[in-house]
Design brief:
This protein has 366 residues and is of the alpha/beta class. The protein folds into 2 domains: 231 residues, Rossmann fold, CATH 3.40.50.300; 62 residues, Alpha-Beta Plaits (2-Layer Sandwich), CATH 3.30.70.20. The strands form 2 sheets. Strands 3-6-7-2-8-1-9-10-11 form a 9-stranded mixed β-sheet, sandwiched between helices. Strands 4-5 form a two-stranded antiparallel ribbon. A hairpin with a 3-residue loop joins β4 and β5. α8 packs parallel to α9. The relative contact order is 0.19. The structure holds iron/sulfur cluster (2 copies). One iron/sulfur cluster binds next to α6. One iron/sulfur cluster (SF4) binds next to α6.
Length: 366
């Protein structure tokens, strides 16, 4: 479906848009399944959606077509390829969970791989990585990750309390002797430096694993945090050490705006904030925007499941001068593809247009 690498992407948008406009929805739905006619029931009758004229709102069809025409007509001045500033790190984040970060991340990775780009998907949502459900990578290596934590030799300790006084994370308490709370320890070793008796030493505490592999042209990396382990940032940093020296790295961030998210987006070249048109989505989007602004990261907003109510998000973005780089329509077909663990880009032609427009807009923002 995707064009080979080196093909002019503006032409791609136009071609995809024209194909999309020509395509009969019924025929497309019939091609949606995993080799089978997904819109057809076992008895051969047409199933859900097979007889529908459109699976997307007409308004969206028109909008996607006009976006393609705008690109064809040179309607996006300042378009600049950022692939020469390698590696390009695109972080996919959101305030609220469940807005479609992984959908955008894996589809964008597949689109770029089909264009012949060197692309890498890094799942930094280490508490619940799920990109593997869609990319289905062949895992080639697993590397355990640990962090240094401190242990105290009670025989040597004099109980002077100096260590507890310097510990900003309250990971040490001195009763008669020091007690270390390893889950709180950040392992920077300040306590060992100040201990006058040399009673403190480091040991390694495993926190998770980094897995690397490949999936149809996409280099794959994911972190898996041990169950109950609160220290996600060190594992995220270990995942990011695998960013390739060139190409495009797509980093799927955890939801929220706390330390693990900051660890992902702090050095990203561009942050895509994926949101949904609900009051919760908008509330958390505002927090996420404040975070990326605080970090000085370029960013844009993707509205997923754009349907009734998304005007509030659009108004917010307009008022704050935040680029809205994509509106993904509320589409039951896309939801069904997602629920089957499939890649919408490979099954729904309109996603080719959507993702190509998205990539163009990311590039133009650089
Ligand atoms: S290494 Fe740092 S965080 Fe851990 S106990 Fe020592 S001072 Fe506290
Ligand atoms: S600084 Fe060293 S000697 Fe003093 S309480 Fe802590 S571990 Fe013991």
């Amino acid at each position: 479906m995707g064009a080979a690498g080196g093909v002019d992407s503006t032409k791609e948008v136009g071609d995809a848009t024209r194909r999309w406009n020509r395509t009969d929805r019924r025929e497309r739905w019939a091609r949606n399944g995993n080799g089978a006619r997904a819109g057809t029931r076992p008895d051969g009758r047409l199933g859900y959606g097979a007889g529908r004229k459109l699976c997307l709102p007409v308004v969206w069809k028109n909008r996607a077509a006009s976006a393609g025409r705008a690109l064809l007509a040179g309607g996006m001045p300042g378009l600049r390829c950022i692939l020469d500033a390698a590696p390009v790190k695109i972080a996919i984040a959101s305030g609220k969970g469940g807005t479609g970060k992984t959908t955008v991340a894996v589809n964008l990775a597949c689109m770029l791989a089909d264009r012949g780009e060197r692309v890498q998907y890094l799942d930094c949502d280490v508490e619940a990585p799920n990109g593997h459900l869609f990319l289905k990578p062949r895992i080639e290596a697993r590397e355990p990750v640990g962090i240094p934590v401190l242990v105290v030799d009670e025989e040597t300790c004099t109980g002077c309390r100096t260590c507890a006084e310097v510990c900003a994370y309250h990971a040490l308490a001195v009763l008669k002797k020091p007690v270390v709370f390893p889950e709180l320890c950040h392992g920077y070793g300040g306590c060992a430096l100040v201990c006058p008796s040399g009673a403190i030493r480091e040991v390694n505490r495993p926190i998770g694993v980094v897995e690397t592999g490949r999936s149809e042209g996409v280099a794959f990396v994911q972190g898996r945090l041990n169950v109950g382990e609160p220290m996600a940032p060190p594992l995220i940093r270990a995942v990011k050490k695998n960013v390739l020296a060139d190409g495009v790295a797509i980093l799927n961030a955890p939801p929220g705006t706390s330390c693990p998210v900051v660890a992902v987006v702090r050095d990203a070249d561009y942050v895509l904030l994926v949101t949904e048109p609900t009051p919760f989505g908008l509330h958390d989007l505002k927090l996420a925007v404040a975070m990326v602004r605080g970090l000085g990261r370029r960013h844009g907003v993707v509205i997923n499941r754009a349907t009734l109510g998304y005007g509030r998000v659009r108004n917010f973005c307009a008022a704050e001068a935040i680029p809205m780089v994509l509106e993904i329509p509320d589409d039951r077909f896309a939801a069904e593809v997602y629920s089957r663990g499939q890649i919408a880009f490979r099954l729904l032609p309109e996603w080719h247009t959507l993702l190509t427009v998205l990539w163009q807009r990311i590039q133009s923002a650089s």
